[in-house]
Design a protein that fits this description.
- The strands form two sheets. Strands 3-2-1-4-5 form a five-stranded antiparallel sheet, covered by helices on one side.
- It is mainly beta.
- About 10% of the residues lie in helices and about 40% in strands.
- It has a single domain, classed as EutN/Ccml (OB fold (Dihydrolipoamide Acetyltransferase, E2P)).
- Strand 6 and strand 7 form a beta hairpin.
- About 20% of the residues are buried.
- It contains one helix and seven strands, in the order E-E-E-E-H-E-E-E.
Length: about 100
C-alpha cells in the first residue's frame, strides 16, 4: 500500500478494452509523515473511490490484486486506488487530509 496525492486526470481516446469506462488518474507517492514527494509519478485506476485532484489516496500497486478488484483476468492493470485518506496517525502525530 502506498499513500499518494492525486495530481491530474488522464484522458485516452484509445485504450485497452478492459480499461474502457475506467477513470485514470495521475498520482504522486508521498511520505506519510511529512507529505513530501516519496517516489515516481504513477498512473492509477479509480474504480470506486471517486478521488479527484488534490485528494490523498491509498494505492494498491500489484497487478494480480488490481485485476481481482476489477474482476478481469487480463489487461494492462497494476495500480488501483483503494480509498481516499482522511487522516494518518504516524509516530504519535495526526495528519488530517480532509
Amino acid at each position: 500500500m502506498i499513500i499518494a496525492k492525486v495530481i491530474g486526470n488522464v484522458w485516452a481516446t484509445s485504450k485497452h478494452c478492459d480499461l474502457e469506462g475506467k477513470k485514470l488518474l495521475l498520482v504522486m507517492p508521498v511520505d506519510s509523515g511529512s507529505g513530501s514527494r516519496a517516489g515516481s509519478t504513477l498512473l492509477a485506476i479509480d474504480e470506486s473511490a471517486c478521488a479527484g485532484i488534490g485528494d490523498t489516496v491509498l494505492l494498491l500497486d500489484e497487478g494480480s490484486s488490481c485485476r481481482q478488484i476489477l474482476g478481469t483476468q487480463r489487461g494492462p492493470t497494476r495500480t488501483i486506488i483503494a480509498g481516499v485518506v482522511d487522516n494518518v496517525f504516524f509516530k504519535g502525530k495526526l495528519t488530517k487530509y480532509h
